[in-house]
Amino acid sequence: xxxxxxxxxxxTLGAILVIAIxxxxxxxxxxxxxxxxxxxxxxxxVLPQDISKDSLMNLMEGxxxxxxxxxxxxxxxxxxxxxxxxxADDSKMAKNIARxxxxxxxxxxxxxxxxxxxxxxxxxxxxxxxxxxxxGTAKPKEYLENISSLYPxxxxxxx
Length: 159
Ligand code: HEC
Ligand code: HEC
Fold this sequence. Notes:
Layout: H1 2-36, H2 53-67, H3 93-113, H4 130-134, H5 140-143
């Protein structure tokens, strides 16, 4: 009888221990996931280092639409897995040009729009965007080829 009691006591303690261990593991991994939720980007040179995954993906999908391209227009294939893209890789010229474009668009909004708004000024001015110039193509110059025809022709009379 006594031996049986001891045994069930041991079982109970064992069960508590298992629950405690499982619990501490789960909380540990939840904390870990919580910390890992903010991704560490590998190679951001113009976008903020702490940009969230959602915001970055919104921007990237916006670039696809504004330029009428796919992610692979700017991102090169991975060397080890050629069917995947290596998003941190800088070997495509379009990606580097895009960096200048991102900075230019941001500077136009921050320096040439925002300061001239009446107070209270918006936190971010978003007047100029990629699509405003690109209109669904990577080469806006092409649709602007005949741009001179858009200017009204002035009749100049010689006197
Ligand atoms: C017009 C060019 C362009 C297109 C199209 C584009 N990206 Fe990007 N992407 C960039 C640039 C430029 C950077 C780096 C920004 C910087 O340096 O701050 C970047 C960075 C990234 C990064 C961060 C990589 C790192 O860790 O440094 C990811 C992830 C990414 N892009 C995913 C995508 C996905 C997914 C798509 C398609 C939905 C896409 N991009 C389409 C230009 C582009
Ligand atoms: C003020 C107008 C303007 C704005 C705003 C603008 N671009 Fe451009 N972009 C151009 C012009 C003009 C070219 C040269 C296109 C050509 O050669 O036909 C160009 C070229 C590019 C190229 C290289 C062309 C190619 O084949 O890939 C990329 C990439 C690009 N822009 C991305 C962007 C992104 C991303 C944004 C927004 C963050 C943006 N641009 C905003 C005018 C603009």
